[in-house]
Amino acid sequence: MDMQGMDHGMAMAPKSSHNCSMMMNHKRHGMMHMTFYWGKDALILFDDFPAGKTNMYVLALFVVFLMSVLIELLSHTRFIKPGSNRVAACLIQTVLHALRIGLAYLVMLALMSFNGGVFLVAVLGHALGFFVSTSAFKKSHQLDEPYDLPPMAC
Q1: Which residue spans traverse the membrane (predicted)?
Q2: Fewest CB atoms within 10 A around its CB: which of 20, 112, 141, 150?
């Protein structure tokens, strides 16, 4: 039986433009790193950022550092005074919690670039934020007490 001229419902699907654009993007950006590497040629949080430019890479590192410091400050600082309105205090705590979690997710996404510099500034930012919020500006009698890490609750 000759099957060359028969159509059996197995027509080739047209090539989608989505696949073509994915291939072009992959070629344009090169290989995505899955291990730590050093260098300014990283994509951090946004497409084409920092785009291999040294000044933009330094800016990206600075932003990740500031976000890490702010996460620690939000985690270890009490913003609500005793005796405050419960509803207002709850709303403030909720907003601060959402801000802290949002920043933490952004730092996590930046770390997924697997860039060694991003990793180092994130760790240093968390360390500095922890130092500033827990020990640097405490009164001397408060430092004599043993300090243990507080729970991560607001």
Answers
A1: 56-75
A2: 141
